Each structure stands twice: as C-alpha cells, then as structure tokens.
Amino acid sequence: MLSDTGTLFTTVIKTYTKAPYNHASLAFDKELNEMYSFGRRNPKNPLHGGFVKENIYTGTYSRYPETTCVIYRLEVSEREKQKMKRILEVFIKNHNKFLYNILGVIGVSLKEPIEFSNSYFCSQFVADILNRSGIHLWEKLPAMITPEDFRKNERLELLYEGKLANYLEPK
Predict the structure, then answer these.
(1) Beta-bridge partner residues of 39
(2) Taking the CB of the first residue and of the last residue of the chain, which one, N or C, has fewer CB atoms within 10 A?
(3) Which residues contact 63 (CB under 8 A, 6 or more apart)?
(4) Helices 122-132 and 78-93: angle between axes, nearest 10 degrees
(5) Chain centroid to CA 45
(6) Which of 36, 27, 50, 52 has the alpha carbon at shortest distance from 118?
(7) Sign of CA dihedral 86, 127, 48, 69
(8) Cα dihedral across residues 5, 65, 1, 82: positive or negative
(9) Is 156 within 8 Å of 73 (Cβ atoms)?
(10) pLDDT truncated to tens, each residue of the chain (171 aa)?
(11) Per-position DSSP letters for 14-43, written without gaps between them
(12) Maximum CA pair distance of the chain?
C-alpha cells in the first residue's frame, strides 16, 4: 500500500517529489490486518520513527481520516511469502532496535544511497524485504527505491485507489 496522510512532513516530501504518495507499507492480506513499515511510532510525534506494525483503524491513520492510498497486489510463491515472513520476524522481535533512516530519504534526493544497519525509511524497508526474499522488482538498491517506484512497477496489480477510509466499506 502507498499512502498520503496529508501531514506537514508528507506535504514537504510531496513538494519535492511531485509524487501523489509518499509512504509505502507491506501487507500480507487484502484486508490490511497485517501491515508493516517504517514510520511514526507515536502518531503525535513525527520525529520518533522506526519499525511499526500499522493498523488502518488506529494509530497514525486514525488521526488522518482524509488519508488517500493506492493498494497493489503482487503475485508471489508460497516460498517467497514464507521467506518474507521469516525476515519480518527479525524486525518484529527486535522492533525497538530499528530506527527511521531520515538521512536515507535525503540520500535518495541526492541520488546517493545512505544506508545504516538497523535503519530504514518506508520504501527502502518494503523493497529490502522483497529483495531479500528473492523478489527483484528493480535494478537499483533498496536504499534508492521510492514509493513512486512501486507505482511505476508493471508487476504490481492495482486493486484500489482512493480514500483509505473507503477501502473496506461494503460496496
């Protein structure tokens, strides 16, 4: 899922990137019950970031009801999915040891990867999980992947685009 909450931080990023979405999350179900990323640990504090299990009904998303999103599906094998979950277990078990890689975000804008161990920004995290699971969607380092790279990838199947609050409403 790619999203835009409309916060000051995301507005600043959008001003630079001109892209409609600036946050990437990895979900394992289309209901978005199991979704992970690097972002705000506390919805009220944009400066305290790291690995987060996201919930579309609580946390940051609940504070920003006008959040827009685009949801994609990627066909993966059962083996690739299990690899992703094994890698993810390390993040879950050590969630407090991971930091948000704000310098990495700046590195993308400078076209120079800035990587630290235990430090990611959202799209770097999602790309790294995919890459380490054997799913290679790009010919560049995860530290150079932006949410816009997901939007432009032809292997991803568009499922939904619109307000996040409307995604799971009965049709």
Answers:
(1) 50
(2) C
(3) 5, 43, 44
(4) 130
(5) 18
(6) 50
(7) negative
(8) positive
(9) yes
(10) 999 998 877 888 888 788 999 999 999 999 999 999 999 888 777 678 999 999 998 888 988 999 999 999 999 999 999 999 999 999 999 999 999 998 998 899 899 999 999 999 999 999 999 999 999 999 999 999 999 999 999 999 999 999 999 997 755
(11) HHHH--S--EE-EESSTT-SSEEEEEEEET
(12) 44
Q: DSSP state, 45?
A: E
Output DSSP code: residue 116. Answer: B
Q: What backbone torsions phi and psi does residue 144 show, to the nearest 5 degrees? A: -115, 5
- Tokens 């987060």 -> residue: 52
CA distance 72 to 161: 9
Q: Which two tokens stand for residue 99?
A: 């930091």
Per-residue pLDDT, 13: 80
Task: Decide: pTM greater than 0.90.
Answer: yes
Distance, CA of 48 to CA of 46 (rounded, Å): 6
Task: Write out the two tokens for 34.
Answer: 């199991």
